[in-house]
Design goal:
This protein is an all-alpha fold and about 170 residues long. It has six helices and no strands. The chain is globular, with a radius of gyration of 16 Å.
């Protein structure tokens, strides 16, 4: 499938709005709620899941701009990168994470707006591309963040490495 800048921006904005609605209604206790995770993974909270989403959005914006990975992430596999994100943001205050959430979204939109429309359609890509702005965010929003909040229907934890039912995100990422 070939994409257009307009379509990618629309999907990015739509998922941000959904995620932002959830983030804005989080109370102090919600940030510390554990999300459903396999026992072999780090014990993420709602805050950790949001940080994970934000890092990968930020990373994809860098890729689109043609920038290299952050120096501390070079040479790491995805699992090690996710672990570093978790360690780096685990003790941060929710207000810092909300600021990052807004800053990353603005950066993503600016990156998309500055990227020529022809770049988006220059080759065939999956219908979910770029995954981190839309499907990956939605998968973690639903299966982690929303599932951890009061009133959510319980969702069984998946085995490590199995695919999510939400637009192809995996447990590793």
């Amino acid at each position: 499938m070939r994409h257009t800048r307009t379509e990618v921006i629309a999907r990015t904005r739509r998922e941000f709005a959904r995620l932002d609605r959830v983030v804005r209604r989080l109370g102090a206790a919600d940030w510390k709620r554990r999300v459903p995770r396999p026992p072999t993974r780090d014990p993420w909270t709602v805050k950790d899941a949001l940080c994970h989403i934000l890092y990968w959005k930020e990373h994809t914006a860098r890729v689109i701009r043609g920038e290299r990975r952050l120096p501390e992430m070079r040479g790491l596999d995805i699992e090690a990168m996710n672990r570093l994100i978790y360690e780096r943001w685990q003790r941060r205050r929710p207000s810092e994470v909300v600021e990052w959430h807004c800053r990353v979204h603005a950066d993503v939109l600016q990156t998309l707006a500055k990227t020529p429309d022809a770049w988006f359609g220059r080759r065939e890509r999956s219908s979910e591309w770029p995954l981190d702005f839309d499907g990956h965010s939605a998968a973690h929003r639903v299966k982690d963040i929303e599932a951890a909040l009061p009133g959510a229907a319980p969702r069984p934890a998946r085995a490590s490495g199995t695919r999510s039912v939400t637009r192809g995100a995996t447990d590793q990422r």
